[in-house]
Amino acid sequence: MDSQRHIARHVVDLPKSGIRDFFEIVAKMKDVISLGIGEPDFGTPWHIREAAIYALEKGKTHYTSNLGLIELRRGICSYVERHYGIGYRPEDEVIVTVGVSEAIDLALRALLNPGEAVLYHQPCYVSYHPGVTLAHGVAIAVPTRAEDGFALNAEDLERAWRPGCKVLMMNLPCNPTGGTCDRARLEKIARFAVEKDLVVLSDEIYSELVYEQAHTSIAVLPGMRERTIFLHGFSKAFAMTGFRIGYACGPAELVEAMMKVHQYSMLCAPILSQEAAIEALARGEDSMKAMREQYQKRRDLVVRRFNAAGLKCHLPGGAFYAFPSVAGTGLSEREFAYGLLDAEKVAVVPGTAFGESGAGFVRASFATGYEQLIEACDRIDRYVQGLRR
Ligand code: PLP
Q1: Of 35, 102, 206, 348, which one's alpha carbon is 20 to 30 angstroms from that of 322?
Q2: Which CATH class is domain 3-44+286-388?
Q3: What does the pLDDT look like over 232-245, one tens digit per residue?
Q4: Which CATH number fits the domain 46-283, given the four candidates 3.40.47.10, 1.10.10.60, 3.40.50.300, 3.40.640.10?
């Protein structure tokens, strides 16, 4: 059988992740300090793990409602109200998902007819463009820039817009740039979304990890609650990546549409993870704040050291990634990343893994212990100085 011939055209055409080969090399090497990973180095706080263990002991091993346990949905609504100032009904305006990953997929599949377009900013999380393609949509990238702190601009969105655009997908604070958006800019983006009648998928997975400026969700701005799907989860702020648990909040009709896709694909999120998430929301905020403090110290260290080494790096307002420019070295982002790995055994991700607008940059995660980061910075410094000789 010619297997290739049986694979759907849009899947055949989907490019493999640009960094897969690179990280296969990293995995085979010894003593590498990896700044490539997009997940907290902290273990999940113990009381959250225990909640999952107790749930297992109590025999909680069954399916839940498709929307998720009502206790969890209540917890999510009160958390979102407290932190973001948006009120949702636990009964029909929240759906618990298998991570934000599933929530993005559900939203795109529920909203897009074939050929409809999604505006998204670039550089961005690796799954955005493929996610749109898999939902038979057309992805339109809107570049963001280092000199602007990688904030998203309504003017750039206006320029990229064309008839057939139905959705704006955004992620603030942003992976990989750490870019955030102040309220004034966000208001302009909200006005643009209303004017063009867009549904906004707002991925706020890093929103607890902001450092100077308070986070504002676009969903609280005038006219936005009715057109925003607020996507959030437990992976980053509560260090729960392996639990695979997230959620989406939005108008009941949109949540209902997502629920239809979810019930025929995933059915429900794992019950043990849902139990752990209830605990995270009830008692996890102190641990979350302690982790944020550590990230901030690490951010200040790496940004200072990158700039001192001659790699121009803006101060990321949120998330746990630095996104320095390597243009001054005369190398491309790929040459820099491979060269650094080879010479000094430090792994960073070439910026183009996050879209063409990442050319000339690399992503360095600071979700790594402080001492390791100091060592990584020493090695990077040595590598960059070596290039100058
Ligand atoms: N959205 C962004 C911007 C991310 O960076 C990630 C993970 O790195 C995800 C979504 C996926 O998160 P989850 O673990 O909740 O599926």
Answers
A1: 102
A2: alpha beta
A3: 999 999 999 999 99
A4: 3.40.640.10
